Amino acid sequence: MTDRQRWRPALFDCPRTGQKVQGLFAEEMFSAAEPRYEPVSCLACSGIHFIDPVRGKVLGTKRNE
């Protein structure tokens, strides 16, 4: 029997709509010491964003600076 992947929610701001959006990320993404951006399908705009699940930052937005 294979191990089941554990998922954990993280909030981020959609850069297109400005809405808070919840994404699900694999549990192991939260153990990274350095920023690690993962693709997420955005429920607010139906687009794909690259999110750092630990910090909730979106790659390429000025809010990250």
Tally of separate helices:
0
Mean pLDDT: 83
**Main sheet properties:** 3 strands, antiparallel
Strand content: 35-45%
Features:
single chain; mainly beta; 65 residues; two-stranded antiparallel sheet; 5 strands; three-stranded antiparallel sheet
Strands, helices and their partners?
Elements: E1 7-13, E2 20-26, E3 38-41, E4 48-52, E5 57-58
Description:
The chain is mostly beta strands and 65 residues long. The protein is 0% helix and 38% strand. It contains no helices and 5 strands. It has strands at 7-13, 20-26, 38-41, 48-52, 57-58. The strands form 2 sheets. A 3-stranded antiparallel sheet has the order 3-4-5, with no helix packed on it. A two-stranded antiparallel sheet has the order 1-2. A hairpin with a 4-residue loop joins strand 4 and strand 5 (57-58). The radius of gyration is 12 Å and the shape is globular. The mean pLDDT is 83.
